[in-house]
Amino acid sequence: MLLLKRTRNEYGNQSEEFYVQLSSECCGKTVQKKLEELHGIYQVEIDVEKETVVVETTLPSSQIIPALELSGRRAVFKGYGTTLGSPFLGAAVAEMKENNGVLGVVRFLQSNESTCIIDGTIDGLTSGDHGIHIHEFGDLTDGCKGVGEHYNPTNSSHGGPDEEERHYGDLGNVTADEHGRAVFRKEDRIIKVWDIIGRSLVVTEKPDDLGQGNTNSSKLDGNSGKRLSCGIIARSAGLFENPKKICLCDGISVWNERDYPVAGESRNQKIK
Fold it and tell me: Closest Cα partner for 81 from 43, 117, 41?
């Protein structure tokens, strides 16, 4: 097992586990070299036999995968957890999708009793800021219309994520680049993973005014406009909890999964 260790950041790290196509110790050393070039990585464990790489980091998983693949090998996200050796308190994931092409994956990790790390990538947005919120319900039968209002168990006014008074679901804004991609990592002191599983995550058309606007609705929803895309927040595998390499339903390996549509008739047709 190859190891890389650096002086650890004392706060807010997470560990991310990946499958990587490794055939030899030489492959593992090439992967390690690519990870050494990234700032924000504090520990790496590479198991060539199991084809796994575990990274302790403060970086979003979407920044780790390109670095792994610069070694010339495919990489697949496998599991999410706390710093190595710390108790696992829970993780969740929301797959954002809507017919307008706004798609993404957002992960939640309870790194300790008081901090939830939110790590995501959303594509298909217009350049600039967009509000992002946890909503009450996980009902997507009518798209994003049935998810209810912001998750707000304390009946508070809307605010920014750093405000003392805010909805629990107020996560602030994410910023999309000129290509329409928003990559973000947030640390939240209010939400807990165990309270949000089964609810939904929504990204909106406009920036959230964080409750600072001049209208009454500002204290309700932040004037952030239309709900562009949403996803149900579901429990996610922790470190070493996901042994799957082949989808039992259709036999597709994790290495080839990205080449197929996620679900539906188009996936079935391609498999045939």
Answer: 117
